Amino acid sequence: MESKKIILSGIQATGNLTLGNYLGALNNWTQMQDKYDCYYMIADLHTLTVRRNPEELRKNTLSLIALYIAAGLDPKKNTIFIQSHVPAHSQLSWILNCYTYMGELSRMTQYKDKATKHPDNLNSGLFNYPVLMASDILLYNADLVPVGEDQRQHLEITRDIAERFNSIYGETFKIPKAYVGKDGARIMGLQDPTSKMSKSAENELDKVLLTDTPELIIKKFKKAITDSENKVKYDKENKPGISNLMVIYGVIKNKSMDEIEKEFDGVGYGDFKKTVGEAVVERLIPMQERYNELINEPEKLKAIYQQGDKRAIVKTADLLKEVYRKVGLVVD
Ligand code: TRP
């Protein structure tokens, strides 16, 4: 029997996830759990590249685990773990730093963006961020890495680092591929549908948070920016607002753009926006309920991540050892 392909992905534990994170990531992950051998981590180490409130980071980490499960990831089928609990990530990261060039890291667009946004805290973690991410991925022999469009460049550098290492020491790392979902990977802002819905957006109306109440969700959809044509038609260039609402509705209802155009033929924007808002509420509210139950059972949550941590530790041990041996460290 051919063994299942391996998937690894993670989300930074920074709190306040949006509908974009859910439809673009978590929702896709839940659809992969039967077909693939999946590893989903909470990227807590990555969050340290920006100053965090320690208590908040701890809270966000646990809350993200609860959310993974509330969103439908079965901890029996998937390995759900905390990055910092698996020391091999940091250990491999050091080694791979020595096989990554300053030049290639300084070309990373995310680094350049962040460097502009946080000029007062330009720490070397921010610079080395992609190397830790490469370690996350390579340690598991991941075949596919579901990521948003914005992480594609980090996948490319991961492949470059892996190929470089393999060419020096022989076949060591599997070369992973990015797995960018269809439109679901990119949910845009409700007020500015030309840029990705971001948890850091200043305009509250631009983003739907997974913790929003039904009233607030409906209100945000009612106020979503559209256009003056009053025709539900998919046209990303000329009708980015309506197209984004169609994508949201399509992912939730599992419908194609064609089907949605037919369904809303002759229906005005007001009613369409209301229907999309209601579909979102219908999906998010049960998730919020499961989340609230879990977050009030810290022992249960702990048992879940400890089980995942253990599996991840076992899974990564051999490869790290092989790398240590290949580069010349004494291993036994
Ligand atoms: N950098 C990713 C993000 O911000 C999070 C992340 C960390 C990740 N390690 C990863 C994603 C490994 C995929 C695989 O979205």
What is the CA–CA distance across the termini?
34 Å
Count of discrete domains: 2
User: What's the order of the H and E elements?
Assistant: EHEHHEHHHHEHEHHHHH
CATH topology of the largest domain: Rossmann fold
According to DSSP, the number of beta strands is 5
Largest sheet: 3 strands, parallel
Helix count? 13
Structural features:
332 residues; mainly alpha; Rossmann fold; Tyrosyl-Transfer RNA Synthetase; 2 domains; 3-stranded parallel β-sheet; two-stranded parallel ribbon; 13 helices; 5 strands; 53% helix; globular; binds tryptophan
Q: How is this structure best described in words?
A:
The chain has 332 residues and is mainly α. It has two domains: 6-179 and 297-327, 3-Layer(aba) Sandwich (Rossmann fold); 204-292, Tyrosyl-Transfer RNA Synthetase (Orthogonal Bundle), CATH 1.10.240.10. 53% of the residues lie in helices and 8% in strands. Residues 8-10, 12, 43, 46, 133, 136-137, 145, 147, 151 line the site of tryptophan. Tryptophan binds at residues 8-10, 12, 43, 46, 133, 136-137, 145, 147, 151.
Task: Give me a quick take on this structure.
The protein is mainly alpha-helical and 332 residues long. 53% of the residues lie in helices and 8% in strands. The protein has a 3-stranded parallel β-sheet. It has a two-stranded parallel ribbon with strand order 4-5.
Helix-strand layout with pairing:
Blueprint: E1 6-12, H1 19-30, E2 37-43, H2 44-47, H3 54-70, E3 78-82, H4 88-97, H5 102-106, H6 109-117, H7 124-138, E4 144-146, H8 152-169, E5 177-179, H9 214-222, H10 240-253, H11 257-263, H12 269-295, H13 298-327
Helix pairs in contact: 3-12, 4-7, 4-13, 7-8, 9-12, 10-12
